[in-house]
Amino acid sequence: MNILITGGASGLGACITRTLAKVGNNTVYFTYSSSQEKAKGIEAEFKNTVAIWCDFSIPESVQALKQSIIKWDLDILINNAFSGKFLQSHFHKTDSQDFLTNFKYDLLPVIEITQEVINSLRKKKKGKIITILTSALLSTPPIGSSIYVANKAYLQKLTQVWATENIKFNITSNTVSPSFMFTNLTAGTDDRVIEQIVTNHPLKKLLTVEEVADTVLFLTTAPTHINGVDIVLNAGTNFK
């Protein structure tokens, strides 16, 4: 299968890229913005991977990616890239312009890329879209996460529209919502907060990027009847 994953050179994205590349018949195209060295390392490790520079804050690079999508005959799109921050400031202290800036750089590129992929998949009459969200949409949002959670909530509703509008073309849209895990996105989290998360967790351990990548791998081969589904990886804590 031909797969495109955005933000696939570091953190969770890199783990997903490597997991999918281990499947011999996959060709994995993955984007990076600032992690060139890591991207080249993945290409050297897996000959069935192709790294593409794409900075969501530069419209020309997004347009170049869209032109490449036309040529790749993709089967699967994995929306993973997020260039903003997880925790910033309290909502009432956040400049309203920051919401617009983050929408422009984190959501509009996802919309444009997904539109291009859907147009391609509709011609093939099959395909899969997998989008990484967050379990914070089901539980109490962390303090200072208003922009991040708002963006993910917006994206969540879009993924449901994609599921509804495209299933007649055998195109599915599913999501994965991980709980807190160690990635570049959460690197600045206070150790005391992490300790509290682990203490309160029913498994007494954090989710790993490998567990999330395995879930994405499952969705790449899941039957078409699995559509519009959000797989939440939080040990069922949202039921409490």
Describe the structure.
The protein is α/β, with parallel strands linked by helices and 240 residues long. It has helices at residues 11-21, 36-45, 59-72, 96-124, 146-166, 191-200, 209-220; strands at 2-5, 27-32, 49-53, 76-79, 127-132, 171-178, 230-233. It has a seven-stranded parallel sheet, with helices on both faces. Strand 2, helix 2 and strand 3 form a beta-alpha-beta unit. Helix 1 packs across helix 7 and helix 3 packs parallel to helix 4. The mean pLDDT is 89.
The CATH superfamily label reads NAD(P)-binding Rossmann-like Domain
CATH architecture: 3-Layer(aba) Sandwich
User: What fold name goes in the CATH topology slot?
Assistant: Rossmann fold
Shape: globular
Structural class call reads: alpha/beta
Helix content: 40-55%
Radius of gyration (CA) equals 17 Å
State the CATH class: Alpha Beta
Major sheet details: 7 strands, parallel
Overall pLDDT score: 89
What are the low-pLDDT stretches, counting only 5+ consecutive residues below 50?
A: none
Q: Would you list the SSEs in sequence order as H and E?
A: EHEHEHEHEHEHHE
Q: Please report the number of helical segments.
A: 7
Whole-number count of domains: 1
Order of strands across the biggest sheet?
3-2-1-4-5-6-7
DSSP strand (E) fraction? 15-25%
